TrEMBL record:
Coiled coil: none annotated. This is Single-stranded DNA binding protein Ssb-like OB fold domain-containing protein. Pfam families: OB_Ssb-like. SUPFAM superfamilies: Nucleic acid-binding proteins. Residues 59-150 form the Single-stranded DNA binding protein Ssb-like OB fold domain. It comes from the Eukaryota. Gene3D superfamilies: Nucleic acid-binding proteins.
Length: 177
């Protein structure tokens, strides 16, 4: 159990008078307000934690926040179209990639810039990945809050006989008694 200190207020001397930082708009007190704000922000910022890596066979429908290291088995572009957005042309690309690790495989939906990273035989780290349901099967995706990083080649072989995207799920209502 540790102890810490919390700043309640800062008292400064200005022209021989004592003033509380929150109550004045004089120049030296602005610096004190800014430093108090910085200290409070530093106190409230959560500490970074190490990622907890998930294996493919641990993925379940409706879950999110997964960090995985996977190999890209195959990549197939399913949609590629350009659209005019003002003076620039934005292109929408969508690819279905089969990714996996030593425990199984799953279909990963890559969007736009992600398509370029998902080359066959590449090893990638998927951060903050989520499971989307598409026609009753699981798909892995990384949205704007996640990240894809190409990393050094992994030393595992993909278990190709356990494809989680081939399992069909049905949403049922459970009545509690």
């Amino acid at each position: 159990m540790g102890f810490g200190f919390k700043i309640l207020h800062v008292r400064l001397q200005y022209h021989g008078r004592s003033q509380i930082a929150e109550g004045s708009d004089r120049r030296p007190l602005f610096a004190a307000k800014d430093s108090i704000k910085a200290i409070k922000m530093a106190e409230s910022k959560p500490a970074m934690r190490k990622p907890d890596f998930t294996k493919v066979n641990q993925l379940r429908p409706g879950t999110s926040g997964h960090t995985l290291t996977v190999k890209v088995v195959s990549s197939k572009t399913v949609l590629q179209k350009g659209r005019a957005a003002g003076s620039q042309v934005r292109q929408m690309r969508l690819a279905e990639c089969l990714v996996g690790d030593e425990t199984g495989m799953i279909v990963f939906t890559a969007r736009n810039e992600q398509v370029d990273l998902m080359k066959p035989d590449a090893t990638v780290i998927l951060r903050n990945a989520k499971i989307d349901m598409f026609k009753g099967s699981m798909r892995l995706a990384v949205d704007k809050w996640g990240r894809i990083e190409v990393t050094d080649p992994a030393d595992f072989t993909v278990k190709e006989d356990n494809n989680l995207s081939l399992i069909e799920y049905e949403l049922v209502t459970v009545v509690e008694e």
